[in-house]
C-alpha cells in the first residue's frame, strides 16, 4: 500500500509549480499574496454558501427582486458599517493583529497598513479597506434581511442614522470653518 501523502504526488507538485509560476508572472516583482486572496475568496464562498443554505433550510421566501427602499437602506448601512469596521479608531483592536498604525486619517478614522507577513497581509488588506469590507458586510446584511428581517432592518436603520449624523457633523464643521475663517 502506497503511504505517500497526497501532497507529494506528481500531479499536486505540478499544480503547485504552475500556481507558483502564475503568481510570479502576475506579480511582476511586486509582493502580491495571491494565495491569501484565494483563501479569502474561498472563505467568502463558504460564508455565502452557509447563509444561503440556512435560508433554504428555514424555508424563507426570497423576493423576486429587492425593494428599492431595501437597496438604499442596505447601501447606506453597508457604507457606514464598512467604514466603522475598517477605519474607526474604536475598532482598531479588531484590526491590530493584522495591521500597523500609520496615523490619523480624517475625523475619528485611522490610516493603517496591512502587516507584511504572509498570513496577515490578506486579512490586513481586507480589514483596512472599506471597499473590500463592503462585499462582506453587504452579504451579511443580505443574509440578515432574509433570515431575521426585522432585527436586521432595525440595525440597518441605526447604521443609516449614524451615517446621516456623521454627514451632519462634517457639514456643521465645514460651515463653522467657513464662517469663522479657520
Fold blueprint:
Blueprint: H1 10-27, H2 34-57, H3 68-87, H4 92-95, E1 99-104, E2 110-114, H5 118-128, H6 130-147, H7 149-180
Antiparallel strand pairs: 1-2
Helix pairs in contact: 2-6, 3-6, 3-7, 6-7
Mean pLDDT: 91
Helical segment count = 7
The arrangement of helices and strands along the chain is HHHHEEHHH
| Helix content percent band | 55-70%
Notes on the protein architecture:
The protein is mainly α and 182 residues long. The protein is built from 7 helices and 2 strands. It has helices spanning 10-27, 34-57, 68-87, 92-95, 118-128, 130-147, 149-180, and strands spanning 99-104, 110-114. Strands 1-2 form a two-stranded antiparallel sheet. The chain starts with 9 loop residues before the first helix and ends with a helix. The mean pLDDT is 91. InterPro entries: Mycophage_PG1_Gp7.
For this entry, give a set of tags.
single chain; 182 residues; mainly alpha; two-stranded antiparallel ribbon; flat
Question: How would you summarize this macromolecular structure in one to three sentences?
Answer:
With 182 residues, the protein is mainly alpha-helical. 70% of the residues lie in helices and 6% in strands. It has helices at 10-27, 34-57, 68-87, 92-95, 118-128, 130-147, 149-180; strands at residues 99-104, 110-114.
